[in-house]
Amino acid sequence: KEDILLDEKILLIAKTIPEKISINSLNIDKETLIFSISGTAPTRLDFNELKNKFEQAKKTFKEISTPDISLTARTDIPFTLSGRLIVEGFAPKAKKAVPAQKSNTEE
User: What is the pTM of this model?
Assistant: First the structure.
């Protein structure tokens, strides 16, 4: 049953990503429900759209973090976005620890 719920969440991740965004990798830890996406956004505006979509889907995702984004690139912006999936009835093993986060963690 957990795998079915996880499969649904993977589809939600895929649907949340705008078409313009190129994804290089998507990793999900089944025990902690932490996910990480790395890819390239054509422009900073496209990246902001991606980040906003994940931040606004509060019933599906939480702890959204984007530590690895180029501040100098204007186009073809490489990024890493991570967060945690919310799955009803499933308690992740680790309470809080988004990978690839900067040392100044958000509460």
Answer: 0.77
Rounded to whole angstroms, the Cα distance separating 28 from 40 reads 19
Task: Decide: helix, strand or coil at residue 64.
Answer: strand
CA distances to 18, 42, 67, 76, 82 from 99, in Å = 23, 24, 10, 23, 7
| pLDDT confidence of residue 83 | 95
In order of 19, 56, 61, 97, 107, the CA distances from 41 in angstroms are 10, 19, 20, 25, 27
Strands 75-85 and 34-43: antiparallel
Distance (Å) of CA 46 to CA 20, 25, 39, 57, 107 = 7, 18, 12, 17, 26
